[in-house]
Amino acid sequence: MKLWSVVLNLNNLLSSISRPSYLIIICSVLYIFSLPPFGISFFYYLSFVIFFLNILNSDVFFKKKIFYFFLVTQLVTLSWIIQSFYSGGTGYLFLGIILVSILSLFVAFLHYSATILILTFYKQKLLLIFLLPLGLSIVELLKEFIFGGFPWNPSAIIYYKNIWILKSLPYLGVYGLGLVVHLIVGLMIYFLYYKNKIIPSVLLALSIIFYFFGFIENNNIKKTEDETLNILLIQPNLYESLVEFDVLKNLEKYEQLTIEALSKSPKTDLIIWPEGSLPIDLNNRVGLLSRVSSLINEDQKIIVGSSAIEEDQLFNRLYVIDHQGKIIDFYDKQKLVLFGEYIPFIKPLVSKFLNLGMNYTPGHVQKTLNLHKDINAVPMICFESIFNNQSINKEICGSDMVIQISNDSWFGKWYGPHQHLANSLLRSVEFQKPLIRSTPSGITSIVDHSGKIIQTIASNKKGYLYYQHPITKNQSICSSTLNSVMVLLFFIFLFSFLYVRIKK
To answer: How many structural domains comprise the chain?
Structure first.
């Protein structure tokens, strides 16, 4: 019970603070340190438990305090996006600040609205203790869909370093695990508010069940034969600019590093360059295609991140190229980055005055790529991995691995690349598929089906990874976790509503 005493003493200390702004800052800092790259998961619980306890212990619910808390947490956690605009100069930097502010205000408003709605309809504090955390889960689901979606950093991400707990993802899903996290928040608040001695036992039981998943092994993963798919990932440590880039100069750096890597790894089957490695339309570019294909032999393939222009539409495309310079397959990014690759409603106007590349068209077809013999991979470009997209999920279930090409160089040296890797890792573990991730400046990584990072090249480093992937057949659970969570939340709220009516 020493841990509870620490929480209680800390809460009493913070409750004595006369200025609510100090409480907001402290709880926000705790929240931030629970996220990548720090990953101190207990700080997440500490942040929300202390904040909501102070709300409940107040004679009046401080509406502004609630809004400012969520606003501060979002502003700090999303501030890495501003780095994307930094290379364009003062004007672009100012635009980046505006866009991050708008996005943070919107997400904060969602949290605020859910909380205030619950506070309005449910006056009993016992119910509020459980419904307030559940409101957080509702917002996580809404972020998946509103305005194209931006479900960045779901609450499950606090466990991205904990392989034991991550083993629950195939059964619970990312949002299901998030729901469990929020229910634990509610139980902790209940214990600390009512001093109910039963709750610690309940929490202990939940923890035991939680960690039980760590003993579960995936018996569906079976090695087919003593054969491997030999993969080479290239990270030249290049940084993009909003206002200028040199395609040929960048190509030379990719060529030099690839030649060096192949000289030490001649048995390579597949070479992967990241998103935006050749940021031009590769269709009908015979000279460039021949130059790229000259790096490989007839038994090898190379993946290149580039663009495509078809019928006056611009696509963010992944190309698969053979040794003859032929494009044997491709994939167009479906989930575009809001304010990064498109701006709704005003896209033509913005594109006319600013060279931001915000005029991409989303792809419409999800597919698997045949890479070697009977080995198939699901392609993902950039932040597509953070979505619970049903078409993508279906293809992942029948594939052997996930290949993600991304360009995180826009995010500089801050924590954006770390959070992106963690978000991608969650999706990979949810479907029990290895993640092969290529970026120009980090973090290039090989992650196995359990979430263990096997190899990695750190941010701001030049290098390459050679990985001998064992050819396996993995039948995922592939449950529709998102729908299940939504139904569960609906019944929880329905039960709460009926309970209040009956009590009246």
So the answer is: 2
